[in-house]
TrEMBL record:
The gene is LOC104771875. Residues 1-12 have a biased composition (Polar residues). It holds the Pfam family CDC50. It comes from Camelina sativa (False flax). Residues 1-22 are annotated as: Disordered. InterPro entries: CDC50/LEM3_fam. It comes from the Eukaryota. The chain crosses the membrane at residues 48-68, 304-326. This is ALA-interacting subunit. Keywords: Membrane, Transmembrane, Transmembrane helix.
Length: 346
């Protein structure tokens, strides 16, 4: 009898505990839905607002100066070559020059190094006035085909570069078809510089977005030839220049990594660049640039972040000064809502 009573008591306690727990959960859920949970509600007095803006200014401006200094420490050599690499007889007809395959496209440029550049020195090509983020252009690709190859056949989004001569194109689409195909070779004092083109693409792209058993097929075999050709014996996951190109840029002016120079460059060195000016940017008034750049803890040269910090910090200080002057000119005791009564009476 005692055991039954003890068991009943335990069950009642468990039931009461469960009921109490459900009640607390229900109450907490109700408070959450009605926005009645305990919360920090700071009182925005004039003094606290002015102090916050001042602190923002004193914190943001030094960060901006440090960031801007780090950005300026990155050394860049920039050369626009699309205009100078056109022979004189074709200056007035650039399209004829770039579309006629019988005309030699080789060009030599000389880049003088002004400051010491420590290896690795990153090589970028930059395209201006190139809308790689256009909706139709971005959609003209098949991510599933890039990963699985011919196993995936639903490639209607790749039009007009879906098939050629009755055979599917791998990789299909306008993005792949228009791949950048200018090439560069670098030398210093007639000695070839060591350039690495490995690990220029994101590791996640190489391993998860481009198939290791997917090989180019029927690529650039149509009537309209676009940009670069791909090696049909190398899988897409190993053709890193193609992977770099397929990561669409967000702005009309963008840079893409071409490779790295694995040797230091001294001040006064002249880098001889032998390039092939193959890529057609003349039909849409685009520009092509070659860039050599070092990097630091912040990355390459980009003044935007530092300037943004300085502008925000300066604006915060100016706003705090304006608030302070207004508060000194028209002080109002805390809790005074006379301004609201005047507006209501009027």
């Amino acid at each position: 009898m005692m055991e039954v009573e003890g068991s009943t008591t335990s069950m009642n306690r468990a039931s009461d505990h469960s009921s109490s727990l459900r009640s607390r959960r229900s109450k907490a859920l109700y408070q959450f839905k009605q926005q009645k949970l305990p919360a920090c509600k700071p009182v925005l007095t004039p003094t606290s607002v002015i102090t916050v803006f001042l602190l923002m200014g004193f914190v943001f401006i030094p960060i901006g100066l440090i960031t801007l200094r780090a950005s300026r420490d990155a050394i860049e050599v920039i050369d626009r070559y699309d205009v100078d690499c056109i022979p004189e007889e074709f200056k007035t007809n650039k399209l004829l020059y770039i579309t006629d395959s019988s005309i030699p496209k080789n060009c030599t440029r000389f880049l003088k190094v002004q400051k010491y550049m420590k290896a690795p020195i990153f090589i970028y090509y930059q395209l201006d006035n190139y809308y790689q983020n256009h909706r139709r252009y971005v959609k003209s690709r098949s991510d599933q085909q890039l990963l699985h190859g011919l196993e995936y056949s639903h490639t209607s989004s790749c039009e007009p570069e879906e098939s050629a001569n009755g055979l599917p194109i791998v990789p299909c689409g306008l993005m792949a078809w228009s791949m950048f195909n200018d090439t560069f070779a670098f030398a210093r004092e007639r000695t070839k510089l060591k350039v690495s083109r490995n690990n220029i693409a994101w590791r996640s792209d190489r391993e998860h977005k481009f198939g290791k058993n997917v090989y180019p097929l029927n690529f650039q075999n149509g009537t309209l030839i676009g940009g670069a050709k791909l090696d049909p014996k190398i899988p897409l996951s190993d053709q890193e220049d193609f992977i770099v190109w397929m990561r669409a840029a967000a702005l009309l002016s963008f840079r893409k990594l071409y490779g790295r120079i694995e040797e230091d460059l001294e001040p006064g060195n002249v880098v001889e660049v032998n390039l092939m000016n193959n890529y057609n940017t003349y039909s849409f008034s685009g520009q092509k640039k070659l860039i050599l750049s070092t990097s630091n803890w912040l990355g390459g040269r980009n003044d935007f972040l530092g300037i943004t910090y300085i502008v925000v910090g300066s604006s915060s200080i100016v706003i705090s000064i304006i608030f302070m002057l207004l508060h000194l000119k028209n002080p109002r005791p805390y809790g005074d809502n006379s301004w609201n009564k005047k507006s209501l009476s009027s």
